[in-house]
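Let's do one together. I've listed all components of the complex below, 1291 residues spread over two lines.
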Amino acid sequence: MKKSFLFRNAILAIFIALGFSACEKDDEVSLANLDVQLEVAESFTGLSTGEVYVYITNTIDNGVDSALTNADGLAQFMNIAPGTYNVSASMNLTEEEAGAASGYYEEMTLNAVENDVQLMGGIDSQVFITLDGEPASSLVIKEFYYNGANDPTYSIMFKDQFVEIYNNSSEVVYADGLYLASLAPSRNGNDENDVPLSLEMTEYVYASKILQVPGSGEEYPIQPGESIVVCLNAVDYTNDGANADITVDLSTADFETYAVDWLQSLGRTGSAYFDLDNVDVPNMECVYLNIENYGWFNFDISSSSIVIFRNENFEIEQVADPSKDVPDFSDYFAKINVNDVVDGIDMMYNAETSAFKRLPEKIDAGFNFIEGETYTSKSVRRKVAKEVDGRRILLDTNNSSNDFEVIDLPTPRGFGE
Amino acid sequence: MKRFLFILILVSLFPLVVCAQKYSLDGKVFDSEKKPLYYVAVNLVGTHIYDLTNEDGSFHLEGILPGQYTLHVQILGYQKLEKEIDIQESIQDFNIYLKKSSLALSEVQITAKVSQSQEGSTTYKIDEEAIKQVQPISVSDILQLLPGNQVEAPDLNSMAQADLRNAGDYSDINAFGTAVIIDGNQISNDGNMQTEGQTVTANKGIDLRQISASNIESVEVVSGVPSAKYGNITSGAILINKKAGYTPYNLSVNTNPTSYQLGINKGYKLKNGDFLNINLDYTYSNSKPTSRKKYYQRINSGLRWSKLLSKKLDWNNHFSLNYAYGFDGQRKDPDETVVIGEFENKNHNISFTTNGNLKILGTTNYSISGNYTKQYSYKKTSEAGPIPIIESLEEGTYVTSFSPITFYQKTEFYGKPVNINATLETNQNFSTFGITHNTSSGFNFSFDKNYGEGRVMDEENNAATGMSGARDMNFYNVPASEVYSLFAQDNMSFKGENSSYLFKLGMRYDYMLKKYNLWSPRISLSGKYFKKYRLRLAYGISYRTPSMLQLYPGPKYFDLINLNHYSEEDIRSLAVVTTYIYQPRHEHLEPSKGTTLEGGIDFEHNGYFLRLTGFYKKLKGGISSVDKLLTFDKVKWEVPEEIPGEKPNPVPTDQVERVSSGFLTYQNTIETQTQGIELSMQFPKIKATNTSINLSGSYMKTHSENESPTLRSAASLTGASKNRYGLYEQTSYNNYLSRSNVTIAQHFPELRMMISLVTEANLIKKREVEHFPSEYPIAYYSIDGTYHEIPEAERSSPEYSDLLYSIDHTKQVPEPSYFNFHIRIRKETKQGHSFSFYANNFLWYNPTYRDDFNNAIKELNSRVTFGIGFNFKL
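Okay, and this is what the predicted structure of the assembly comes out as:
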């Protein structure tokens, strides 16, 4: 009898604990309607917004739907599932069309985008999107490998990061003096509690780290269809082939970074742990690093945005960055004028974190991401648009969602064939 | 000095004894079946008069001055009895009946009880019934019963310290000043020098999760001014009494989603009347319900032998021997093919204690303990090469090679801290001019030394560059830390019309760090009026000696890379490195000083009980790590000419750069001041339903400042290339914390069941900047490492514009007020078996708020957790 009472208590206790799990009732799903009104930026005149495809991408399942605009630039989406969508449209202009519309005679792609449009069931919504763009550039980022090696020992970590810059034009371009910047802030939505930093990014982008290609002007030519590889450390991390399936040989890169001596000359401390100087590979010039001590020029591994730009006149400004990961030090960013940017790519944490974009539409109308966690050995590479006389012309619509693809292993100076 | 000490000891052991008319009290103690109880402690509260009952239950108290007393009768397993008694003549045949403690009794206290105690001015006593109700695994779980403390699920995977009377910031420093005293013996963590491993416990307070809760009879927390007997503290004391006496076999099993605990204890009565208590306890815990990776294991075992050495002297002696094992580490995941990092701490602890009391020179208490711990900490990490191999233990410049891409670095710490602690104390009662004096005086000695081998670097491994202080360091060369103390206290009581007063006057002398003579007065006054009201006032000073690691932090290594000459061709690959060694000096460290002032009012009438205490607590000279700058010459090396296929021959150039490196050292720089109010309220029990309601709460404000300036290089702030470092004032903060708990206890004596509901109101939690530092530097280091003070008038001059430091004026977001609800159920059977259950945050209530300062959405309250416990009496 006594035992059973004890037992009843135990059962009671378990029921109390279980009783707290709540149940939810499913409601019937009602669908949504969306009107998208396409417009063109003021700097382009005489362009019709009719007969343009408008795309909507569901941020959860990446499902894409499209509709053509009518003569007034209106595209209508009927009976779509409620949810969050990224809305986009683009328009390719020939040299003549571009010249007529903007006075700038160069092939270009105009992009219009509105991210994170919330659609609710049973409600008609409307969004306005504006087509805007920059001429396609001769130097483009061909490949960006920031995600870290899929190395269970983490002994490579992200030390094999690199950026490859490609000459997409038909003429020789000199890399001398070209700047490469990592953009801020590092906050990217990988923590569910992250809130985006609302920086106005129409005129400037904000950099936390800046490097520069050395040379006096004509020392580092890049031939049409060729590229330079800028890596963190010029080391063969494949370690005599043992790691060939997770990383690549970077000992033949064109440039590497080494910040220890530069930081020490500024009275700061570098990281001899992450920074290595290969005597056979020239170093990038160190320009700006907003980490006081123990910093080096790596890229953020979970989401990373970079630009290449020309113009030494950037200013360093304190920006109230509420991301307090590194208190006090992360507040200083170098402000780079958007007009000086040659090319850029916005890599986000995942499909749903476009609110953390660090680049304006005219540089990168979209964004891309590497699915899954960090340290996957995955890289992101620009697609080939066409081949002319054996020279690959890479796709450059200033929209990384279109232009880039995620690949399983980096391919410096190659296209994976 | 020695002579002075000797005289002081003599004086303190033989205070004046003044004779007055004294009476005696004789009686017997029985259980409810009228069977005599043996070895029952009978004493008069506030005096040192005590006796232990004989086999026939009889006791004899003598030397009692006329007056009102509280008679305190206690034995393990029975409900404690407190009885008011007026002694104006000798009393005989005073019979006392004790009830077996169980939930069938009508009076069961399940919250911390405010007590008038000999030990200090504000004390909270937590008795066995209250302890059982919270189903604790370690002592830290018991402390959730203190006013203003949060109810939290047991967490055994991180260090648990007692953070008494602190609203935020510098918890480690506050807890470092709290003494933990088990059976009269102060536990020491001062010899702990393990600075790495799974959990770092060096330089902190006592790790309370190591102390098992299963064999504890009561816990008393002194948060106010402690009696002069307690020293080497700045923030109160926790007194733990373990079980001694007869008990049946007691088998306990406690489990919650992350841990389980199994314990057995038994108190034997031996044929010669001695008692032998044994206990064995095993605890296992994972850090998360979903992951087995991090885990903690603990074994506590003990033997306690209580013997009446002399009936004539009432010489009661306890001898205990304990062994404890603690493991804190990680297990290898079966899916994990390669180890990324391994961390562990392992402690074997053996301690013996002998303590007792006897009637000689009044009453004499003594306690001697020895404590030996074998500590092992281990850290093995997979490192990412290639990096220059640096393992020099001497200063100098040398050529070295590069590590492979993958290598392991292993650091081991072997510590053997030993602590010896001895206290001798005598107590007398006498009366002069209507004032009753209860005096105590004595001395205390504590000794800490570490005989361990220290930090040992594995020979196969490479030291990482740029990481100063990863190399060998001996512990056994570190001198012992000794504290000599003398104390004397006189508790004077006297009566007025409708009032009675207690005036405690104490003085303590500590001799610390072999050079500091420190005097700590402890004064308290309380007056009781109309048997309803009591006014209290107390003031006290205390000192805490620095830990051994703070005094001897070991050498710091600085490695500069003169040449980084890596190549894929092995033969060409080399680095030139210069190692500098700096031995931090510790002579400047002083004991930290704690000051407490408090006052309060109590009201007690018709079952209503209210106690309100206001306090001010100050810590001066708290020790924390401080930024320092050292500069070194870095000679640039080069390889002038390389011959293919041959090893390069590096040579120094005449290019020398002055390179600076920051490092941390210890200083007495922390000052904290806490002001607060503590409230305890008890309402009369609702007799019809057996419901009792208890309210406790606190409001505190802690002001903290760090007087050591912050160091920052000019370069990072503006991108300028001036090579100097600015020193800036630190921000000072005010923390506010207010919480209250309402405990509704529903008791069903006939069912032997107790259900308690705790409503926790988290009212205020905020951190405010009290003083933003100036953006101008107060001093700077130039590149050659020299220190330049900047006169206040010149700080804003353009000359220092590169040193302008932008101050973040963002305000921190306070936590909103929120509730949390907990339920506890305990049920006993007639045989004494019991079952208990608790659910913390049982309403699964996790409100969120937006924290603009950290730019994040934050969740409040921990997730719902529950635990079940069984206790069998065999």
